[in-house]
Amino acid sequence: IVFGSGGSRQVEKGYSKSRAEQEFIDILKMMGPLANKHSVTVVVEPINSEECNIINSVTEGAEAVRATSHPNVKLLADLYHMLRENENPDAIIKAGNLIRHVHVAEAANRTPPGVCGDDFRPFLSSLKKISYQGDFSIESRWEDLLRQVGPAVTELEYQLLDVN
Question: What distance in Å separates the CA atoms of residue 160 and residue 73, rounded to the nearest whole number?
Fold first, then answer.
């Protein structure tokens, strides 16, 4: 289960950010046992600061997941949001085995891989360094899914194979 939704996570103006962060962790602590009971994993999705004002980076997401300390609460690395935040690919290495899923889309218009030519290899290299074996989802704005999906998958596979 992806815990994303920037709109529903938005911290109201004037509300204490540290209190909101603690409440976010408290919610994750409630979700962990429920997720375990139903044999699912909740992944925290950091969302760029243009769309949300809390948990905007993989680094912040990892801190929240660590504070939750539950095996059914993990982290999602969304390369689109990381690019939008200019987050260093090393954040993936620091998060390590907390990462359970990866989203991919290009930064400018959330296009599928290969449309604008974004280079995901630095992020993919970091994922390789942590021996990431999980899934990828292309979470983009599709203009013509049937026409675009093949080239997008091909481009992502090409970049995956081209990392050190």
Answer: 26
Of the candidates 25, 35, 36, 48, the one whose C-alpha atom is nearest the C-alpha of residue 2 is 35
User: What number of H helices and E strands is found in the chain?
Assistant: 7, 5
Relative orientation angle of helices 17-37 and 58-68, to the nearest 10 degrees: 60
Q: 81-138: per-residue pLDDT in tens?
A: 999 999 999 999 999 999 999 999 999 999 999 999 999 999 999 999 999 999 999 9
| Residue 131 Cα distances to 31, 79, 128, angstroms | 27, 17, 5
User: What's the predicted TM-score (pTM) here?
Assistant: 0.93
* Residues 163 and 126 sit within 8 Å (Cβ to Cβ): no
Amino acid 82: pLDDT: 98
Residue 43: half-sphere exposure toward Cβ, Cα within 13 Å: 20
